[in-house]
Specification:
alpha+beta, seven-stranded mixed sheet
């Protein structure tokens, strides 16, 4: 594998991000969206996250974006302000090459540096062994499964909830 670079995403990256996500929407169960959002919507989402102080990274391999990861608000209520939800998506050609792990490690490190205390993973489809394995490798603990909460491709899908304590976690109250 060529040298992998993990760097902060910029608006010019969102066309490639949109293509990766569109494939995941059309063919996978990691997301419960049914129609791929267009470039305008994906750009709006990117700007909302980055303008809101959340980290967003892309993985560059051989001059192309091989995947991306970001954190966003877990829930909108202010009491959740120190908890983030993560997302990571890879181009199918980049699976099983350690890229997702590198993206997650960088995302976790950056979330800790920004003072977040908990990271939640909401994994689409309990059969998504790759994502569950990635999160486990990053130290996430299994919290539970919501059975049969999404309907996609004519079948019911679960969501798996996993959680990772960040930094000081719940040992102190942030200033």
């Amino acid at each position: 594998m060529s040298e992998l670079e993990i760097r902060p995403a910029v608006e010019a990256d969102i066309a490639a991000v949109t293509a990766i996500y569109a494939q995941a929407v059309r063919e996978g169960t990691a997301t419960f969206e049914l129609e791929p959002p267009d470039l305008t919507e994906m750009t709006r989402r990117f700007l909302a996250l980055t303008d809101g102080g959340f980290p967003y990274f892309v993985a560059m391999l051989d001059g192309a974006i091989a995947g991306y990861a970001y954190a966003g608000a877990y829930r909108p209520r202010p009491a959740y302000r120190f908890t983030v939800e993560n997302s990571v998506y890879l181009d199918p050609a980049s699976h099983r090459r350690g890229i997702g792990l590198r993206l997650m490690q960088r995302l976790i490190s950056e979330c800790e540096a920004r003072g977040f205390r908990q990271m939640i993973a909401v994994i689409g489809d309990s059969a998504n062994a790759a994502s569950i394995g990635l999160h486990t490798r990053c130290g996430f603990q299994m919290i539970g499964t919501h059975p049969n909460v999404g309907l996609k491709f004519g079948r019911w899908l679960d969501t798996v909830m996993m959680q990772l304590a960040l930094g000081e976690a719940a040992t102190t109250v942030p200033a």
